Amino acid sequence: MDKASLIAEIKELKAKHDVLILAHYYQDGDIQELADFCGDSYFLAQKGQTSEAKTILLAGVVFMAESVKILSPDKKVLVPDFNAGCSLVSGTPYDDFVAWRKQHPEHLAMTYINSSAEVKAVSDVICTSSNAEKIVQTIPTDRGILFGPDQNLGRFLEKKTGRKMLHWPGQCEVHVLFSAKRLFAMKEENPGAIVLAHPECEEAVLVHADYVGSTSGILNEIRTNKSTDKFIVATETGIFHQLQKARPEATIIQAPFEGHCQCNDCPYMKLNNLEKIHRTLMTLENEVSVDDQLLTKARVPLQRMMDISNDKPVSWPTTFETPQ
Ligand code: 13P
Ligand code: SF4
Asked: Taking Cα atoms as reference points, which of 116, 92, 106 lies closest to residue 140?
């Protein structure tokens, strides 16, 4: 089937089955265009929770769809490909994470949303890159913080807020590939260009950035910062679709990598495509399921994130209780 017919059929199936499509900014432009809403990981979780839709197809990675399911257990949440994982999720085995928690029972565990449902269930609060600073500032100052699984985001937060943290040694396999040395050279060649970076990049890259923030933060900065029309962006390729749409006249350059690879495509995000979305809407299979007990436990830290983000008061557990 050609692309135009495929898109037309997806729209028909979506209407027929009354499915809301949510897409992350790292999806291909075609997928972003047919989605009802595009956003960063916080926005997708929030939209999934607040929408009236009974069935949601999440075009992103599986932990994002799982978060929607955990926050809205009554909704049917579909994914185009269950293999759409994340190096932060696979780099955080549950048993090792629990062992880390047991070593520091008085610390609160602040866990990035890029984690499994099991790891969320033994965490105290979840964060995304767009609300992480606010969440750190809400954690009582007499409590230690265990931050995982992204050590680069954790170190960035530590620097920004002045709060000491212990870090889980995880990283995003895509964002660590940007080259600080080549970025420095690119800045020299493009005087006046503003550098925007995702906090999953290494510190050596972040020191060259004029703005560090989530995917929606980067988009907002490009939309609103009219002091220049040249930007260098250190994050995944999918977002360039929205960036260029927001500022068609601007020159938006991808930050460079070591060597000559063009490796800023997330291999997991890019597993999704129009054919798989079409198939998922035909069969309504590929439904995310989270065991009831696990879901109940994982919802506590996720809901705490939602409450803090919405300026609601929260309470904190006094100590880590080893799971049965
Ligand atoms: P955002 O929350 O900024 O969209 O980031 C998600 C992600 O996976 C970045 O690699
Ligand atoms: Fe995970 Fe990195 Fe892909 Fe984001 S870009 S989903 S952090 S592997």
From this structure: 106
